[in-house]
Amino acid sequence: MALQKLSHTFTKIGYKALQAKRYYILSSIILFFFGFIVYAQETPVRQPLKIEAEKDSTAITAKALIQNTVAIDSVRTDSLTIDSIPQKEPLLLDKIDYKAKDYVRISQKDKKIYLYNEAEVYYQDTELKSGIIVIDYEKNEAYAGRIKDTAGNYIQPPYFKQGGNVVEPDSIRFNYDTQKALIWNSRSEQSTGGTGGVGGVNIGAGGGNINVFAELTKKENDSVYYLQEGKLTTDKNLEDPDYYIRIRKGKFVPKKKVIAGFSNMYIADVPTPIAVPFAYFPLTQSRTSGFIFPTFSQSNERGFFLQNAGYYFAISDYVDLALMGDYFTNGSYGFRAEATYALRYRFSGAFNFRYENNITSQKGFPDFSKSTVFNLQWRHTQDAKANPNSRFSASVNVGSSRFFRESLNLLNTSNFLQNTLQSSISYSKTFPGYPAVNLSLTASHSQNTNTETVNMILPTFQGSVERIFPFAPKEGVKKGIFQNINFQYNVRGENRIQTTDSLFLKKEMFDDAKMGFRHTIPISTNFKVAKYLSVSLSANYDDVWTFETIRRRDFDETLNTVPIDTLKGFDRFGQYNFSASIGTTLYGTFNFGEDKKIQAIRHVMRPSISYGYTPSFDQYYEEYVANETGEIREFTRFEGSIFGIPSRGNSNNIGISISNTIEAKVKNKDTTATEPKKISILNSLNFNTSYNIAADSLPWSPLRMTGGTQLLNNKMSVNFGATFDPYAIDNNGRRIDVFNIDNGGSLFRLTNANLTLNYSLSSKTFQKGKDDKKNDKKSVEEEVDETFFQDSFSLGRNQRNRFDDDNEEERENKLYNTEIPWDLRIGYSMNYNNSNRQKEITTNTVQFSGNVSLSPKWKIRFSSSYDIKNQGFGHTNLGFQRDLNTWRMSFDWQPFRENGTWFFFIGIKGSILSDIKWEKRREPDRRL
To answer: Which string of DSSP letters, residue by residue, matches 457-500?
Structure first.
């Protein structure tokens, strides 16, 4: 019946063409149906397109198509009566979208549609593009192959897409009914989010892309492919990959897995002995659980070992976990737990715990030692969109003080330089409204790895009320002294614990814990005087609560000491202070003329005078007999309070400070510019000192000077400081109430000074031309800097060419030795001390680090420091990295370290096969 319907369709087309010759209509219909019936009773020879497996045999020339001489398979069927058994429905031609650039021809005799040159076919969820496509609408099959261009090269290979799976072969034969296909030289790129594996187990974790190639592929259904002579690689160049894993036979399930028999690795088409009897490669889009392949090596002190062996758990889309361990043949071991978690628009974080039992040498030997170290790291970040009024965050780094110095599996060598571990866990809540209230709880930790002291606050409570303006209007600008009066309320409570590394996390660490609260109410206002003077007034009241005080008794001759009693219970003290300040801004401009190169210099000075008063709170002090001579001293019962003790002695200070900035206007060589260029000469130059009116002696405090500027087109930053004392010192180095100038010296005595320089330099510093033309015209200081460096260094103009990032191949072919990119960072720090006339330079250090790219694939890195005073190198790291396209090779060496080491690595960059690698390291000598 289907054939009759199709014949009727073509008859209607013929009827319209023969309307002009009506007398042929009847005879034509009779002859057509007679011939059709006779033809239907014959045994037809069904000859589908033959697509050879050999390379380049799939191309079909246009001449062969036109002459209908395409090679046919000799597949025959039995003679069947049309209506004897039900026939399968042919392709619904009106549901197929197809087109081609050169021609589209329908052959009723062959039951085929021929498409040539840029042919495209769309049917249901399939998409097929190729140079040539032949559709057999009787057998519901499609054939696609390449064509030749005028030069004889094969072009327009097939592109087949079904659902989300894409295959790019040399040729394909596909049946729309059974969904089966034969594919020659197929290529498919799979995005993975899980682990990869060989030898029957998974390895690694994380996502990546892997390319699958097979000479012959049989598509069984929508999700199963059988491969023959396949290749798996992360190299995008399947024509000539750097490496691949050869699969003789395998099963390929797109986006899920590849299961293969005997497989081995080829590097540059050369077989290697790296082989396994069977392999499993998960290709899931999400993460999958699997084993983590270990690193094998040998240590002189601990024997042979396995490191980083474990299992990766893909628990869910929101959390994962990796458990890993190390084992040494001398008995040392360690294990780690690493987890990450995330919930979109809510929070994200990571957890890392490491524990190691380190054994050196063998029991019974004199150098035998054993120690256990651990480290816990936790990071939690809340998304700002989760809750605008509350927030929880954590940054934890706590553990043994010796962990980073003794760890057997420390990849980041810079952690060796850490001498402080810090942690913080906090929760804050805001109650909106007026006035808004903010509350927070924070647990913090600070650990000195050198002294092995641990300071913890468990917890810190803070509360504050928004600033309130009681006399200001609800709307509009606040004016005058009264409208600007405002006050706040703040409270802070702490539970401080100070312990040592040996008592950490033991009950003894809580024995000496101290707790207290501090309430603060600041009141302030500000206003203008004579338009140019800014005046501010403030007062502050503190109320301190404590839960432990002391009492000193008189000297006990029997004990030969002063007994101190610790009193548990609530106690408090209050204190207050006042302050005021007045300041203004002065501008000075020196004009030299618009025709001058330097047109003007502008000086901005901000002087200010402040006054502060804190009374003496004698009511909180008592007297006691300090020794056998009967000496009377004073004490306060709040000694040891975490928020200090009541103020003792009047403080009546006048502070003086002056800040300066200096800028210059220079002539702009850009004729289109309407304004001159501005150059900063001094970013800051500050002076400050104070005078205590209530002091009986030495009322002046030392004068402190600080400053900073930028030089060489802002590439060099300079910061400096110095302290000048107006008073002289005696032979013991103590300050005396005599001005230094009256003691035969200068007006001020330099007691200490510091200087820091930081400069960044790179190959781009000396380049000029292409990229500069794209930017605005150079400023005067840029041109001066460039001329300076061109005259001072021989590099000059030979390094003006830049890389062409848009054409990698062209960049590779350039003469690379004329444009080696590099960068260098240099730092210098110096501290000078003359507090006791010692005139000593306490620190004098140069730090430097940089990178040099010898080629687009070679990169050398270095970092070090040199102590000029002690004449020795600091922590130094030398290394290189080689990009091998799909591989990566690196080497790092710390030569001037007491426990110096080196580390070599080579491995595949793609994460799915990242555990195919080789690592070698020299373990530091822990005995040093």
So the answer is: EEEEEEEEEEEE-TTS-SSS---HHHHT-EEEEEEEEEEEEEEE
